[in-house]
# Entry
Amino acid sequence: MATTKIGWTNRVWNPTTGCDQISPGCTNCYALTMAGRLKLMGQAKYQNDGDPRTSGPGFGLTVHPDTLDAPLHWRKPSLVFVNSMSDLFHDDVPVEFIAKVYATMVCSADVIKFQVLTKRPHRMARLLADERFQQLVQREVWALDGHMFAGFIRPNIWWGVSIESDRYTFRARHLVETPAAVRWLSLEPLLGPLPSLDLAGIDWVVVGGESGPRFRTMDVGWLADIAAQCDDLAVPLFVKQDSHRHSEQQGRIPDDLWARKEFPRA
# Structure
């Protein structure tokens, strides 16, 4: 489990690595760039190349069964971002492997909060609501620690989707259809206003601009509109960063918005 500079989490856990770009939010993907560097450094997890049209060196979708049991040994209270270098619901991740990841999160200490984020919420919603998948998770839980857990919805697992522009606000509708105790949105990199966004059924919103040498500028007015929507429905808001070459830099966001570092009430 690696530490991270991501402001809304403490650590990352990558049972899968690699992905494919599917929307404009992926254009300057930090994970794709990092995977290429890790491949050159000889990192074993990043030796599988992806399709050059949608992925890249070291970024081919790869599952890592040897990492599955890591969270079972953690005891310190932590927020853990699942798959900072991948997407758990990528079509190439086997259903059986997703069930194993889910079972590991179920069997981990309650003080570990897992934050799952996807751009493929249609698959997430379909699987998590499927009784056959739930039974598969039950079997994996039994195999791990010999008990059947009561209730499929777990308070220590937060299920989220990423939305970068109004065209992709439909992802939030899929999220609301997902059985979950905490549903959250990562509106980053925010590339446009979100007038169609409906926060009904959402428990947490993270907003951030893009960083890196080719960053696209976030209009602070878009952020203010989202903050107003959050206030109307009493949804906690975490303002992560402004758009800037360096992620730690900001200056255009008003102090009252920059101070918003709220977390779910769960």
In short: Helices lie at 30-40, 95-107, 121-128, 131-145, 170-176, 220-233, 255-258. Residues 131-145 form the longest helix (15 residues). The chain has a mean pLDDT of 94. The longest strand covers residues 112-118.
